[in-house]
Every structure is written in structure tokens, then in C-alpha cells.
Amino acid sequence: METIRRYNYRAYPTRGQREALSRLFGACRYAWNWYLDQRKVAWWLHLPLPSYAELSRRFTEFKREPESKWLWMVSSGPMAQALRHAETAYSRAYAHKAGYPRYKSRHCGEQSATFTTSARFHVRHEHNARWMFLRLPKIDGELKLRWSRDLPSGPSSVTLMRHADGTYEVSFVVKAEPRKAPKPRHNACGIDMGLESLASIVYSDGTREKVAPLRAMRKAERKLRKLDKELSRRKRGSNDYSKTRLAKARLYARIGAQRRDLACKLASRVAGENQAVALETLCVKGLMRTHVGKSVADAAWSTFTDRVDALCAQWGRKAIHIDRWCPSSQVCSQCGRRDGPKPLDVREWKCPRCGAFLDRDYNAALNILDAAGLAESLNARGGDVRRRLASAGRDAIAREAGTHRTAMPH
Fold first, then answer.
1. CA atoms of 145 and 134, how far apart (whole Å)
2. Are 356 and 350 in contact (CB under 8 A)?
3. How far apart are CA 141 and CA 13, in angstroms?
4. Strand 157-162 relative to strand 168-176: parallel, antiparallel, unpaired?
5. What residues act catalytically?
6. Rounded-to-integer distance, Cα 288 and Cα 301, Å
7. For residues 201 and 291, is the Cβ–Cβ distance under 8 A?
8. How confident is the model at residue 107 (pLDDT cuts 50, 70, 90)?
């Protein structure tokens, strides 16, 4: 069964092509903002909201006016796609899946334009060549792209993007055969997300591990503070201001790339090695408003969980999200006693009922595995395995499976 996937490539346009792409991005922004204006005017005047077909016809007539001749300098396909994207944004807002769309600005770091097959773009690549070339309507010459992997099929659309750090990227939408799923090594695993350790994982075969956090933002805070001070001393609009702003944007892009790299690699390993994955449901948006918001953003929990869900769906694995209000850190995994919430600095604690000395993260991961209904193999092994999986201390790590993961830093 074919799946829809995106293939991204780094683009290197010439100076003339960058000017043409800037006009194209400006036209797409204008079409988006024009669509929002029409919808808001109809709402303010208590008129029936116009449909997409009606607004598309009005925009075509609007382009024929003398003061709108500059819109004819770029291809009409990306502007039509901008109108469709605005209609989709309103539909998602009405379905309570997202907020209402907002106006786009030229000062926003991210700019994009989408071409469909009706725009008649052309991709050229020679065998074993390091570069591929993309020809777009009303853009002189061929756009040079860095060839990193082959396209599995002909693209149905292409999106050009300019990021805040000044780099360009091209994204192709293609149909591809799903990759063969790796052979699972475990039946199931329970994962507790945290800040002290990015992920504490308990496997159904009696092994466990903790993944150390990257803390990319924390490591780059000194450089960011220096760039912020330097930017505040620059005159807005000057060349030095632009150079400093780009340097800051490049540093933020590097931080984001480091976060995605760790989250995607860990998600690929977790989804590939387990037949079922139990995850906790986290309110990341709410946690971002607390005093640990910066650390929560640095952990990239949503990127990890979304990637696990996507890979499990692609490989036929099962991803189970337990209830958000499940007290995984408040319940002893040995006897089931609930003794209430604990401060974040309490990493190890002793159960007053059974006397087990538990590790906070491993105990929560084991409770998550229980809440998802995936801990039958642990029960069959007996309470001794369960006690070792949840107990604290480096000497208490389960070693009966001979896994190399026990040597990972805690």
C-alpha cells in the first residue's frame, strides 16, 4: 500500500532567482491576507460568509485591475494554493482543531509557496550527479538543489521555503512504498517522559534504560544572550542588524535540528524494537506556561511522541496513550499504594507499605506499562523482576537479559 511522504532538499538559488522568489512569496502572502480580509469584512457586516469558489473568482477579477498588475509577474498557481490553504485554515478553526488564521508579514522568518502539477514544474537529475535542477514557471533558469536521495516517484506538488536563517529548502510530495518494518526485539515497553532524563523506558523482557537529555537550548544560552545584547545595540534596518539577526536565526535553527535529530532517532529505535509502545499523555501547552517551560520546550516531547505515533502506524505497531490523569508517579508499582504527589526534586522514595525503594522514573514507566495493559509478561516473571525494574540505584538495574542499554548514563 502506497503512502504519501515528503522529500526535502536544500536549495541554492542565484541572486536573480532569490529576487524572483521574494516576489513570489510576497504575492502568496498578499493572497492569504486578501482572503482573510474578505472573510472578516463579511463577518463584520453580518453578511453570509463567501465560499472558496466565490472568493477565488473575486481574486481573479481583482488581479485584472490596474493597481494589481504586479501580481501577474508571478505564477498564478501558488496564489491559488494560498487561497486554498486559507480556506483549510478556516475549516480547521471551525472544527476546533486549530486557532483562527492570522495575517502573514514579510518580516516573518518563514516564507513558502506551493506549486502543483498544473503549474508544470519540471525536475531534472542526471545519473550519479550530486545536483538536481528544478524549473518553475516565471522564474528564470533552473533552481539548483543538493541531491541527497532519489525520489521514489514523480512528485505531485513542490513547496519552496525560505527559513529565518536565510536558507532555502524544497519539499516534494510523492507516493512511496512503505519501508519494511524492522524485526521487533521486545513485546512492549513503557516510557515515562521527564526533564532529568529525557525518557525512562521499561521493556517487557525485564530490561530498562534512561536516555540522557540533550539540553541544546541550555548549552546555547550564553551565545544567545551575547547575540541578544549585540542585536539591541544595532540600528534596526542596518546591515549590521541584519547580520546579527541572521546569526541568531542560524543558532536557533541549529538548536531545532539537534532537538529533532535526537527525538527522531530515539523514536525510530523505540518504534522499531517494540511491538507495542505505551506513552503518557502530556499537556505540553499547559506545561509551557509553568516555571519549567523552557526545559519542556528543550526536551521536544511532542516531536518524539508524534514521531512514535507515525512510525507505529507505518510499521503496523501499536502506540497506546494512557489517560492524562493517570497518577503514574504517585502509585507504588509493587503494592499499588498511592501516597500523593511529590516535589520534582524527589527522584527516589521508599514505599511506606511494602518498603520498596523505588526510582521515580522507572516506577512511573512501569505504571504506564500496567495502565496500557501490556505488563502480562512481567506478572508471569514474578514480583522479583518487577521490583528490580522499579527499584532505585545503579546496582538494581535488571541484567538478566544481558542488554547493553544498562550502561547508558542515568
1. 7
2. yes
3. 10
4. antiparallel
5. 192, 280, 361
6. 11
7. no
8. confident
Separation between Cα atoms, residue 247 and residue 38, nearest integer Å: 38
Residue 3 to residue 156: CA distance in whole angstroms: 13
Q: Cβ contacts of residue 321 below 8 Å, gap of 6+?
A: 279, 280, 281, 305
Q: Which amino acid, 13?
A: P
Residue 211: all three cell numbers together: 536516555
Helix/strand/coil percentages in the chain, nearest 5: 45, 20, 35
CA distance 87 to 113: 16
The pLDDT tens digits for 44-90 are 999 999 999 999 999 999 999 988 989 999 999 999 999 999 999 99
What sign has the CA pseudo-torsion 394, 207, 358, 340?
positive
Q: Which three cell numbers stand for residue 68?
A: 494589481
Grid coordinates given for 308: 512514535
pTM over 0.70: yes
> How many Å apart are CA 154 and CA 175, to the nearest integer?
8
The grid cell for 318 is: 501499536
Residue 194's contacts (CB-CB under 8 Å, 6 or more residues apart) are 200, 361
The position carrying cell 476546533 is 96
Q: How far apart are the first and last CA of the chain?
A: 41
**Rounded distance, CA 331 to CA 337, Å?**
6
**Mean pLDDT of all residues in the chain?**
88
Among 26, 60, 389, 1, residue whose Cα is nearest residue 181: 1
What order do you get walking across the sheet with 143-146 strand by strand?
Answer: 111-116, 157-162, 168-176, 3-11, 143-146, 131-135, 122-125
Do residues 390 and 366 touch, judged by C-beta distance below 8 A?
A: yes
User: Is the distance from CB of 59 to CB of 33 less than 8 angstroms?
Assistant: no
